[in-house]
Design a protein that fits this description.
The protein is mainly α. It is built from two helices and no strands.
Length: 40
Amino acid sequence: MSPQREKAKLLGESPRKTPIMQVQVLLLTHKCEPHINGMG
């Protein structure tokens, strides 16, 4: 119900998955930004 509880549940279920996903998202946004800015 509470955000903290959900976060703890996610970390408990998959401690590796969350940080990897965050890194992938950061890399994707970092790669896409220059292309969008250059084309836009």
